C-alpha cells in the first residue's frame, strides 16, 4: 500500500517538470527561427536554377517610328525606349546598344557605315560603324519650351537636316556629330524636310505651313499650301516634282521644286503620315492611320492615284514607309512588309 501511495505522490511532480520543459521549448522556438533566418541570410547564398530570361529585341509594346536601309541589306529601325533594331534578310531582329532610353522618332542612313537617329528631348544619335556603336551628339540646340525631333533626312557629303517642335530646323555637315540651327526658334512644329540638289530644302509642318530655301538654308521663303491641316511628310523624285501628304487624307503635288502646290482629290480621309517615290515601280506610295495606303503610278498625264487598306482587320497606324524593290516595309504600331496584295508583319513576343 505504501509503495503504491508513493508512486501516486511522485506522478504530479514529473508532470510539472515536463510542463516546464515544454513551455521552455515553446518560448525559445521564435528565437530559434529568427537565428536560423539570420544565418541563412548572411551565410547561405542562393544558387540560380535554370537560365535568365532575355526579353526579345522586338516586343509587342514597342512602337517603331523610323526605318532605313542599313549595312549588307539589313534594315535599321528606330523605336520607343531608345531601341535601335537590326532586321536582317532572314527577318531576324536584333537590338543594338544605345546610350539613351528616350523614344527615337526617326532614323536615316548616309551609307553602309554612317547613320543618324533623332527623337524625344532633342536626342540625336550617330554611328560610324554600321550601328555597332552609337554615340549621342553633344550640344544639340534646344528650346526652353519643348524639344522633340520628328524627322531626319540625309544628303551628300555628310549633310543631314532634322526638324521638330518649336521650329526646330537643325543641320549637321559631319555625319551627325555636331548640329547648328538653320532658323530661329518659333511656335510651329516641322514634320519633314526634303533635301534636293543644289542646296534646296523643302520643309512641311503643322497648319499647312511650307518653307523653301534655295541656298542651303541661308534664306527662306514661306510657300502657300492649299490646305490648313498639318502636313506630315514630303518627298521628291527629282529637283522639280514632289508630293506632300498630311492629315485627313491630304495629298499635294508640286512640279516646280516646292514653290507651288496643288491638291489631289483622293477618295480617303484617313491621316497620311509618310510618302516616298519608288523609282523601281515608278510609283508614289503613302501610308498612314488605320492601315491606309495611297499610291500614284506615273503615267503620260501624271500620277494615277488609287487607295486601299492593308487588310480588313489590319487597322494599325504607320509613320514610315521604305521601298524594298517591288515591296514596302512599313513601321509604326507594328512592322512588316506589304507586297501589294498581302500584309506580313514581323513576329513579336
Automatic annotation (TrEMBL):
UniProt GO cellular component terms: photosystem II
SUPFAM superfamilies, sorted: Oligoxyloglucan reducing end-specific cellobiohydrolase
Gene3D superfamilies per the UniProt record, alphabetical: YVTN repeat-like/Quinoprotein amine dehydrogenase
InterPro entries: PSII_CF48-like_dom (IPR028203), WD40/YVTN_repeat-like_dom_sf (IPR015943)
GO molecular function: hydrolase activity
One Pfam assignment: PSII_BNR
Coiled-coil segments: none
Membrane is among the record's keywords: yes
GO aspect biological process, one term: photosynthesis
Entry protein name: Glycosyl hydrolase
Annotated PANTHER family: PHOTOSYSTEM II STABILITY/ASSEMBLY FACTOR HCF136, CHLOROPLASTIC, PHOTOSYSTEM II STABILITY_ASSEMBLY FACTOR HCF136, CHLOROPLASTIC
Keyword tags: Hydrolase, Membrane, Photosynthesis, Photosystem II, Transmembrane, Transmembrane helix
Transmembrane segments: 21-44
Taxonomic placement: Bacteria, Pseudomonadati, Pseudomonadota, Betaproteobacteria, Burkholderiales
Span of domain Photosynthesis system II assembly factor Ycf48/Hcf136-like: 97-221
Amino acid at each position: 500500500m505504501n509503495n503504491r501511495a508513493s508512486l501516486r505522490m511522485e506522478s504530479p511532480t514529473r508532470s510539472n517538470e515536463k510542463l516546464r520543459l515544454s513551455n521552455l521549448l515553446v518560448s525559445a522556438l521564435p528565437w530559434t527561427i529568427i537565428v536560423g533566418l539570420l544565418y541563412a541570410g548572411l551565410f547561405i547564398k542562393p544558387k540560380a536554377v535554370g537560365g535568365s530570361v532575355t526579353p526579345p529585341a522586338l516586343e509587342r509594346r514597342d512602337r517603331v517610328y523610323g526605318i532605313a536601309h542599313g549595312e549588307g541589306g539589313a534594315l535599321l529601325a528606330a523605336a520607343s525606349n531608345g531601341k535601335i533594331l537590326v532586321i536582317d534578310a532572314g527577318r531576324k531582329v536584333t537590338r543594338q546598344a544605345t546610350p539613351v532610353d528616350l523614344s527615337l522618332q526617326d532614323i536615316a542612313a548616309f551609307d553602309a557605315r554612317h547613320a543618324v537617329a533623332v527623337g524625344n528631348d532633342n536626342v540625336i544619335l550617330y554611328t560610324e560603324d554600321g550601328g555597332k556603336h552609337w554615340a549621342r551628339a553633344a550640344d544639340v540646340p534646344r528650346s526652353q519650351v519643348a524639344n522633340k525631333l520628328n524627322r531626319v533626312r540625309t544628303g551628300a557629303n555628310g549633310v543631314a537636316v532634322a526638324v521638330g517642335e518649336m521650329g526646330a530646323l537643325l543641320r549637321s555637315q559631319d555625319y551627325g556629330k555636331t548640329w547648328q540651327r538653320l532658323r530661329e526658334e518659333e511656335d510651329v512644329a516641322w514634320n519633314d524636310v526634303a533635301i534636293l540638289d543644289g542646296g534646296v530644302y523643302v520643309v512641311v509642318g503643322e497648319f499647312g505651313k511650307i518653307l523653301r530655301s534655295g541656298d542651303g538654308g541661308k534664306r527662306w521663303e514661306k510657300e502657300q499650301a492649299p490646305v490648313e491641316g498639318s502636313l506630315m511628310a514630303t518627298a521628291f523624285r527629282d529637283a522639280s516634282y514632289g508630293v506632300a501628304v498630311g492629315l485627313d487624307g491630304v495629298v499635294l503635288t508640286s512640279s516646280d521644286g516646292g514653290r507651288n502646290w496643288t491638291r489631289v482629290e483622293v477618295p480617303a480621309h484617313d491621316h497620311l503620315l509618310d510618302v516616298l517615290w519608288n523609282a523601281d515601280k515608278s510609283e508614289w506610295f503613302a501610308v498612314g492611320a488605320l492601315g491606309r495606303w495611297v499610291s500614284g503610278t506615273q503615267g503620260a498625264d501624271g500620277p494615277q492615284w488609287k487607295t486601299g487598306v492593308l487588310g480588313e482587320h489590319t487597322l494599325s497606324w504607320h509613320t514610315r514607309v521604305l521601298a524594298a524593290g517591288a515591296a514596302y516595309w512599313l513601321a509604326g504600331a507594328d512592322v512588316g512588309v506589304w507586297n501589294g496584295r498581302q500584309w506580313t508583319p514581323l513576329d513579336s513576343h
